[in-house]
Amino acid sequence: MKNEKQNDRFVFGLEILFTFVYLAQIIQGAIWMNDGSVELAEARLILLQGIGGLFVSWFPFLVLLLFHVKLHPALVMGLELFAFMGIYLGETCRFYYRFPIWDDVLHTFSGFGMACIAFHFLYAFLFKDAKNVKHPIVISCLFACLTSVALGALWEVYEFAGDTFFGLNMQKSIPEASALWNGGAANLPLNGTDEEIAAFFRSPEGYRYALLDTMGDIVEDVTGNAIFAVCASLVFGVFHRQPSVMVVKAQFKEEKKTQEKLA
């Protein structure tokens, strides 16, 4: 009981900490939209990503509230740090532009992390105690990898929606070539002359520009899945370790009292 309360306090502290981080990001994005310190599309993206960060920071609480499921502090820490690296460091601190490998690392890590989270959910609540499933760990790993790939595809839909409805450049549809760069607004014409635009899109580097970004992200997600599958095979198959309990069904006071009466 004492450890449970300590874990709850730790998770709540993480949620509060990152709430302040993303609130600061939202305020910064709004300021930049007004004073023109950065391109309007970039400032808008920072603001919207900050709003998304607030949702991620309180995701463990929402899961507890809606499904009565508690996430292990290690899972919460990994989720919060991943979001911080992508949303705050990647966008506000411009790590995506300063370090080209930053996006690749995060997509690979997201494939691994989402597969890991999906595995623990599936194993704990569907396959662990299923009497008609002979190999629950194997089945959980398989469905976890498929779930992670599906989430990666859903992320690309999210990026497409952001570019379409808010004029962002999340799918890199706007070339970063200096002559054509229009500030990263997908809803505005490209800069440059017709000859410069035609010359850029005549080459494979041009007409495959956005496709390479999207497919590169999906390939990196699948790579992260493959790494998880290999690690899971070694840990659970070769070394015969049992999965740790990372997600549990939470019991509220009323439920505990009811169970005590029935006992």
**What is the N-to-C succession of helices and strands?**
HHHEHHHHHHHEH
- Classification by helices and strands: mainly alpha
Q: What about the largest sheet?
A: 2 strands, antiparallel
The mean pLDDT is 90
Shape annotation: globular
What would you note in describing this structure?
This protein is mainly α and 263 residues long. It has 2 domains: 1-99; 101-246, no CATH class. The chain starts with a helix and ends with a helix. Helices cover 75% and strands 2% of the residues.
What would a concise description of this structure say?
By secondary structure, the chain is mostly helical. The chain is built from 11 helices and 2 strands, in the order αααβαααααααβα.
